[in-house]
Amino acid sequence: MSSRNMGSVGARIAYYRSVLRPKLTQQQLADAAHLSLGAVRKIERGERGVSNATLEAIADALGVDPSRLRADRGPAHTRVREALPALSAAIAAYDLPEEGPVRCLHELRTAVADTVRWRLAAQYTRIVRQLPDLLAELARAYDAAGPQTRPALAGLLVRGYRSADAIAYKFGAHDLSAQLVELMRWAAPKVEDPLLAASVAYVRTETFFAAHAYSSGLRALEQALDELPISDAPPAIAARGALHMRAAVVSGRARDASAAHTHLDQARRCADRVPEGVYCGTAFGRDSVRVHEVSVAVSLGDEHVVRALEVADGWKPPQEGLPAERRSAYYIELARAQLWSGRTDDAFASLQTARSIAPQHTREHPWVREDAATLRRLKRADAESLTNFAEWCAAT
Q1: What is the DSSP letter of 277?
Q2: What angle (nearest 5°) sits at the alpha carbon of residue 10, between those of residues 7 and 11?
Q3: pLDDT: is 52 or 153 the higher one?
């Protein structure tokens, strides 16, 4: 990069936008970063300053660390890890909150909805900047609330804890993740919403994944399915389908092909009855089930990997309706199937696609590090881009 291109934030943004393959237009960058075209133009020309939130949104859209755009910023993954103690402190006194300000219920709903949106978009630095204080505020609000508003605030606590758990689990803080799951289980019954309880059962599976306790995880999901009321309402159908979808993945990890395919079939039946969308914080629909079909095939391994490649043949996860985190997960799973099948170039292309969709999610995924390291060994030093990618995700 020339010194002229390195000279300002705007010039750096323009440079990285121009070297992407395929190249992004200013309009495409604006759309991906949720900015106006005029804002992007002014930033690149140096006519407008860039806030932390805007810089990170642009970095996410470009698939680079914010530190690559401005030299005085630390790597995104470092800032997230540094915030984990603050999250721990925020939940440690959930039942003994300190005094402080509390916004009205409407404002708290909006703040929690933002964290859900950022979780689905895998924008973890945005979450950690807001969430510790927000969780403490929600605990104060719940503690001071009367019986009429407590259920609503308990529901906000569950959603806030889930956003925090997404960070803790993906960044390897499994003890903190387990604490957050237990807090979700504490708060959910106070809402008396069976769909919210089902979503907590879905998230709880992470604890079993971390412990490789797949049989226990499957039992927990099957219990949640039994307790979920039968309903023709789309949110209830989606909740049931999501639990089957998750059970299919757990069965795949346990190498139980029969159970995995049974749960996938049930998930497909549910997906045929509802449009793709986000229901109670979880994406579900035909496209989500297809993504999980690839995940199940990779988990089962051996001859089942062929099925993952068949699903991917001629199909890509749509940008509309499917969250960035789920789309990037699809390409991470697909890359593993391609690598196992000897298609190393395709595997690297899939990893690059995952990075372009959700860089923070991709960077922290253990399979990405493993597969990037394997690709680097197989291909030796014949690809500078592969070396750069491996260094970016800390593959060894």
Answers
A1: E
A2: 50
A3: 153
Distances (CA, A) of 177 to 84, 157, 162, 210, 328: 11, 15, 9, 10, 21
- Give the Cα separation of 282 and 203 in Å (integer): 9
301: left (phi over 0), alpha (psi -120 to 50) or beta: left
The region that residue 273 occupies, defined by phi over 0 for left and psi between -120 and 50 for alpha, beta otherwise, is alpha
Q: How far apart are CA 33 and CA 307, in angstroms?
A: 34
Residue length of the chain? 396
State whether residue 255 is helix, strand or coil.
Answer: coil
Specify whether the CB–CB gap between 371 and 339 falls below 8 A: yes
Tokens of 273: 């009855």
d(CA 260, CA 89): 39
The full set of domains in the chain, from first to last, is 3-68 (1.10.260.40), 75-188 (no CATH), 193-322 (1.25.40), 336-396 (no CATH)
Q: What is the pLDDT of residues 69-100, one digit of tens each?
A: 865 444 556 778 888 999 999 999 899 999 99
